[in-house]
Design brief:
The chain has 2 helices and no strands. The chain is mostly helical.
Length: 185
């Protein structure tokens, strides 16, 4: 007997057995624990598998040898305002996305690890142990978020320090004319 499939399209999960294979009901402390993990889905069946498969296809142009070129970030020439803006924006987007993915991975890790009992079969410390294991991953996500913020600070500092020179070059963004202060007289 399986539980009905939820509306969100996840697979149905059979209920946990309450009886020993021979049919007798055992108290929780006498049940044997299988410490070997072969988990493809989380025990509660709510998380997708964490496996990721990538395939890279290389296209070679020319004489059959691939040039060993490293691709730099956009705008890394630093020759104009637009280059520096493109560089800072590229780094901000890159680390913002990485921070989100790393934070989600940390939450998924906690959700899976908290369902693993210790060697005696107890779930008593599972949440604490899962939090301890995932703590570095959460710190990495926080640091990646800080890096994304620092890219914004980089471009803001550049604009603040070189605004006068940028206005002389002519490629600066259009400045609004200062407005006269309002007065009744």
């Amino acid at each position: 007997m399986t539980t009905p499939a939820p509306n969100n399209g996840l697979r149905a999960v059979p209920p946990r057995p309450r009886h020993d294979p021979d049919g007798s009901r055992l108290p929780a402390r006498d049940r044997q624990v299988n410490n070997k993990l072969n988990v493809k889905f989380s025990p509660d069946g709510l998380l997708p598998p964490l496996a990721l498969h990538l395939t890279k296809t290389t296209v070679v142009n020319g004489g059959g040898t691939q040039a060993d070129t490293t691709k730099s970030a956009p705008g890394s020439d630093f020759t104009s305002n637009e280059d520096i803006h493109a560089y800072a924006n590229h780094g901000r987007k890159l680390y913002r996305d990485r921070a989100c993915l790393t934070a989600m991975d940390a939450e998924a890790l906690v959700a899976i690890l908290r369902h693993i009992p210790d060697t005696s079969g107890s779930f008593a410390g599972a949440r604490i142990r899962a939090a301890k294991v995932s703590r570095p991953l959460k710190r990495i996500a926080a640091l990646e978020k800080t890096i994304a913020k620092l890219y914004v600070v980089l471009y803001a500092g550049f604009q603040r320090e070189f605004e006068a020179e940028l206005n002389k070059v002519g490629k600066a963004r259009a400045q609004k004319a200062p407005r006269a202060p309002f007065s009744w007289s």
